[in-house]
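Pilot study result, target chain (213 residues):
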Amino acid sequence: MNALGMIEVYSFTTAVCAADVAAKAANVKVIAFDRTRPVSEAVPAPLVMQVKIEGDNAAVRAAVDAASDFAKDEGTYIISHVNARPDTETEKMAYLLDINKDKYNKKLPKNFLGAELEIQEPDFSIGLLEVSGLVASISGLDAMLKAANVRLIHTEKRLGGRLVTLIIKGNVSAVKAAVEAGIEAAKPLGKIHGNAVIPRPHGEIMKFFDYDV
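Predicted structure:
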């Protein structure tokens, strides 16, 4: 590994969006997402996510800067850093992946270290809705699926703080309409900690989500 870049942010939604920004900013690989719980509840979301990327030193620094600027604009930035030429044991630790533990993505590797992947650039958009509580998340999901021609491709429930993140796919107008409907349905039942629409997400992001399920 030439260089390892790390960006810590609040919320799963911000992490996915920041990773997309990083991958579009420079020629880097997004190698893993990791998580922990914040010490205090007085934070933008009860979840800390880390995005890890690798590539040559200049590309990693450019990608980390772009992702950090995005997170700062969102008010969810914590810290970022670039390690030049990390030790091989550090590299192994960096590749540890702490998402995709549910029924989704069973055919995808749980660790991308040494994996040879053909990165495909999607021709669709994705939407994310991150809420507190299963009741709110199920109600939000039902509203999204009824509002537009979209499909659920991923869910994360092991996030701490009762957080659930739903990811849907479709064309950009359908995804926007669905996310708006999901917010309105979930808001009376649980706090919204994140929502986003990513038109044409980078293939480096979508390799983490089995969108053919």
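One observation from the pilot: The first strand starts at residue 3 and ends at 10. A full batch analysis is planned for the follow-on phase.
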